[in-house]
Amino acid sequence: MTESFKPDNGAVEYRIFGPPGTGKTTFLGRQIEHAAERFGSERVLVTSFTRAAAAELVGRDLPVPRNHIGTLHAHCYRALNSPEIAELKIDEWNKDRPQYALSGGKGSLDESTVDQSYEKPGDELFAHMHSLRARMINPEMWPPSIQAVAAQWREWKAENGLIDFTDMLEMALADIHVAPGDPSVLIADEAQDFSKLQLSIIRQWGKHTEYMLVAGDEDQLLYGWCGCTVDAFLKPPVPESQKRVLQQSFRVPRAVHAVAQKWIETVTQREPKEYLPRDCDGEVRVQHGGSWRNPEPILADAEKYLAKGKTVMFLTACSYMLDPLKAALRAAGMPFHNPYRKVRGDWNPLGRGEKSTAGRLLAFLRPREEVWGEDAGEWTGENLRRWVEIVKSDGLLAHGAKTRIAGLSPEARVEIDLLAQLFEPEAAERMITVLSTGTVEDCVRWLLDRVLAAKKKAAEYPAAVLTKKGPRALIDKPQIILGTIHSVKGGQADVVYLAPDLSRAGMVEWSAPGDRRDGVVRQMYVGMTRARESLVICQPVSAWHVPVGVQ
């Protein structure tokens, strides 16, 4: 297959292998455009494992209807006329079946099964049940404890007219033989992370198309806990003429590539493929001193990269391992984020929306030229409303001022005479004096002293970032990314700091015989291959770690 690949030899499934940084999403975008041109935009259906991958494709403005790109669950949900979902009523289940109570939110795609913590009685049982269903294991072969909880779950769903996410897939496999919209072309992205059940649906739908592309990389399979297996992706085998390996990485440099390839070749099952590094030497080294539990030396080491404008990514196997790093970054006033998991507020504490605390602080500082440059000027009604919403009224605002401010036109200029009406005289005078003659730090301190108690903690971090790193640090995208390895799949940074530590459960998997350690190998491989230039292996905290790379 070439870039102008036109699958018209009568085969149904074409398998695309996209190792790290080889531009799989770009390649698929071209295939989608080609298919839409050949068959019509309404005749192409695209599905992916995660919503993030679907959103990535939607954001590329491809020539297909937006509802033709989505997760497999989303396509099945629409095809089944939007049934009521059991997982959205976990509180009711917990009340009815407390002996099998669930935490809710378990089964999110942030952690692997070996690193999950099971907080409530039913969590581990349900994880096991859904994995067995995803692998299409005959229920008669399930352990008695799983059969018992499954019986209770089926009964409760029937009583309440609900189906669960796995039911949705099982019903689609049984009843929906043609993909929604009867497409001529079906394209499945992230296929290595689809379960046997999901790929059975895709391949069933593919039989009724002109052809389908199943794209992924088994070396990057991360979601074994959901029932995903290498066999589901690689079997049944297809002829070499129906395979395409995207060989050239545009991300991974030679040094990182060499270590990563040596590491991934230790798994028990994979598709042999030629995979080339980008034309850059890069570096791999061990950071002596510091660990996820003691991150200050690592941050000090990263400063030399940050000073050169490099992006730096800190990765761990488990989210709890990031807590000391988050605390150190906050204390140092260093901005960080995780653009691949925006729903995690603790990983994105600065936010970027109008209602973020950082945004409200910037709104208060609108008159300051050091912060806003040419955009500095008088507050508008919108600026004033945003920062006033988080401050205490007593001793600051005149009676009824918040109501008046809420009614101001967003674009209205707030002049001195209006401020005199909205603020207590003494407070207004002090505020204007600080804003006009004080330092930016004085302005920030003035505002923090008046922030509502409930908002105080949220305001302290962006205030520290602004005062220690300057106003641009609140406006520009952070150079620092942190997250679990799972959370940054598909992402990259110039420099990656990788902690080789595992949880207790992860170490059990690593120490097990046979192929059980393969999931840990793939997890660390994904972490290593996020690096564009430098990979830094951190010191482990204990014996619960893997010998990644050069260690």
Task: Describe the protein's topology.
Layout: E1 13-17, H1 24-39, E2 44-48, H2 51-58, E3 69-71, H3 72-79, H4 90-96, H5 123-134, H6 144-160, H7 165-175, E4 185-188, H8 196-206, E5 211-216, H9 230-234, E6 243-245, H10 254-264, E7 283-287, H11 296-307, E8 312-316, H12 323-332, E9 336-337, H13 357-364, H14 369-372, H15 381-388, H16 401-406, H17 416-422, H18 425-437, H19 440-448, H20 453-469, H21 472-475, E10 480-484, E11 493-498, H22 504-511, H23 518-528, E12 531-538
Parallel strand pairs: 1-5, 1-6, 2-3, 2-4, 4-5, 7-12, 8-10, 8-11, 9-10, 11-12
Mean pLDDT: 90
Tell me the domain tally: 4
CATH superfamily of the largest domain: P-loop containing nucleotide triphosphate hydrolases
CATH arch. level architecture of the largest domain: 3-Layer(aba) Sandwich
- The residue ranges in which pLDDT falls below 50 over 5 or more consecutive positions are 106-115
Helix content: 40-55%
Structural class given helices, strands, pairing?
alpha/beta
| Sheet with most strands | 6 strands, parallel
How many beta-strand segments? Answer: 12
As a percent range, the share of strand residues is 5-15%
Strand order of the largest sheet: 3-2-4-5-1-6
Q: What is the general shape?
A: globular
Number of helices, counting only DSSP H or I runs of 4 residues or more:
23
The top-level CATH class of the largest domain is Alpha Beta
Rg (CA only): 27 Å
